[in-house]
Specification:
This protein has 450 residues and is α/β, with parallel strands linked by helices. Helices cover 28% and strands 29% of the residues. The two termini are 25 Å apart. It binds shikimate-3-phosphate.
Length: 450
């Protein structure tokens, strides 16, 4: 297990007039995939703008352990000399994945069709998360998994000696599961077919096509059908990682709830499989513009401009939008606290198995700050109080979850009383410079004395 980090308790206070330009970090999902596909390609993949958050750095170390040569060239530039599809070697030590579900699940998929054995572990949050969603499909390829009760890490995967291709319907909306099966299918003969009933983020499909794999995607009445031909020669690429719409959500939402704010968040990837939060905020009446809309590297990109929005209304978020904003429900519920009326969120069972049980973590934290929340297994309703009526004053448990930590710090910017969180340390997994960037906008954020 990784050495536990010392908790960093923090406090945020009401502030006014957040203003300026925020260069948020690069996309976490795309950063993991750049390293993994770079490691499975032939030649040198050059990555600029890699997110140097803890999660991605753990994936970089893991790729090195499986035999790739991964170098940090400085300023977000990285080089990966890949070993080619089927070229992973057996790691000598345990693969430490820290807090990262994406890291561990994608890597388990990628190694499952190699005749090697690897043991994976993570922090206290990751070691509680379900891994059967990966070990079930990789068993179909011929891999075996030996983990703790309930399919938890630490876990050893014995890769398939003679992998066979599979046809797999992903049982839950999960880009991690879809991607793990695709990566396993790379080193299997013939065609691997993946069916996802609900579309999830499609970065793996896009990037694999960019690396030269044969990937065909068809949208049918059954859902999305992805066909992948095994044993491609993946060719090294030059990748520029766009900025993360999930990280952009924090300064954008901070601006919406603090009086007099006007914040510009440039170069945000607005791939429709990721942009659901922004559609939802606009439906709530947020003053949020997409400036300079354009395409970069095949992805829609815009500069987001968010201004104080005192008249937002609660809405029912369409459940079919859930996958495109699955990481954004915590920060949405913060904004919804400052809106008039109820915000209803349904079809969100997956929130219960993220870095924390996010419905439970948000409900507890919001109640500690004077909000009323109703919840069920796969839904929750937040009763908005309207601008100027969010009490705050609570101490929030963040359960080693970066997005819970950042969401409650943002709540404090608009609440009447300071909001304290027990630990801001995990913010470094996805948004290492959150504190200085928010402070530069004029936010009031402090680390507490122990
Ligand atoms: C991710 C997929 C999502 C998301 C996670 C990143 C990815 O997880 O919550 O932060 O990069 O594929 P699920 O696949 O569990 O939905």
């Amino acid at each position: 297990m990784s050495a536990p980090f010392v908790p960093i308790p923090m406090t945020s206070k009401k502030c006014m007039g957040l203003s300026g330009v925020v260069e948020v970090p690069s996309d976490k999902s795309i950063s993991h995939r750049s390293l993994i596909l770079g490691a499975m390609a032939i030649g040198e993949t050059k990555i600029s703008g890699l997110l140097e958050g803890r999660d991605v750095l753990d994936t970089a170390k893991a790729m090195q352990a499986f035999g790739a040569t991964v170098k940090n060239l400085g300023d977000g530039n990285w080089s990966v000399h890949g070993v080619g599809v089927g070229g992973f070697s057996e790691p000598q030590g345990v693969i430490e994945c820290g807090n990262s579900g994406t890291g561990v699940r994608l890597i388990m998929g990628a190694m499952a069709t190699h005749e090697i054995t690897a043991t994976f572990t993570g922090d206290a949050s990751l070691n509680k998360r379900p891994m059967a969603r990966i070990t079930d499909p990789i068993a179909l390829f011929g891999a075996n998994a030996y983990g703790r009760k309930g399919g938890r890490l630490p876990m050893t995967i014995v890769g398939a000696k003679h992998p066979v291709p599979v046809s797999y319907t992903v049982p839950m909306p999960s880009a991690q599961v879809k991607s793990a099966v695709m990566l396993a299918g790379l080193n299997a003969p013939g065609e691997t077919v993946i069916i996802e009933k609900k579309a999830t983020r499609d970065h793996t499909e896009r990037m694999l096509m960019g690396f030269g794999a044969e990937v065909e995607v068809n949208t049918t009445s059954e859902g999305r059908i992805i066909k992948l031909r095994g044993y491609p020669d993946l060719q090294a690429q030059t990748i520029s990682v766009p900025r993360d719409p999930s990280s952009a959500a924090f300064p954008v939402c901070a601006a919406l709830i603090t009086e007099g704010s006007d914040v510009l968040v440039p170069n945000i990837g607005l791939n429709p499989t990721r942009a659901g939060l922004y559609t939802t905020l606009r439906e709530m009446g947020a003053d949020l513009d997409y400036d300079n809309e354009r395409f970069e590297g095949g992805e829609p990109v815009a500069d987001l401009r968010a201004k104080f929005s005192p008249n937002m209304k609660g809405i029912e978020v369409p459940p079919e939008r859930a996958a495109s904003m699955i990481d954004e429900y915590p920060i949405l519920s913060v904004v919804a606290s400052f809106a008039e009326g109820d915000t209803v969120m349904r079809g969100v069972k997956e929130l219960r198995v993220k870095e924390s049980d996010r419905i439970d973590a948000m409900a507890k934290g919001l109640r500690a700050n004077g909000m009323e929340v109703d919840e069920g297994e796969d839904w929750w309703v937040l009763h908005g109080k309207g601008m100027g009526n969010v009490l705050g004053g609570g101490l929030v448990e963040t359960f080693l979850d970066h997005r819970i930590a950042m969401s409650f710090l943002v709540l404090g910017f608009g609440a009447e009383n300071p909001v304290r969180i027990d630990d801001g340390g995990p913010i470094a997994t996805s948004f290492p410079n959150f504190e200085p960037l928010m402070a530069a906008l004029g936010a009031n954020l402090t680390r507490n004395d122990h």
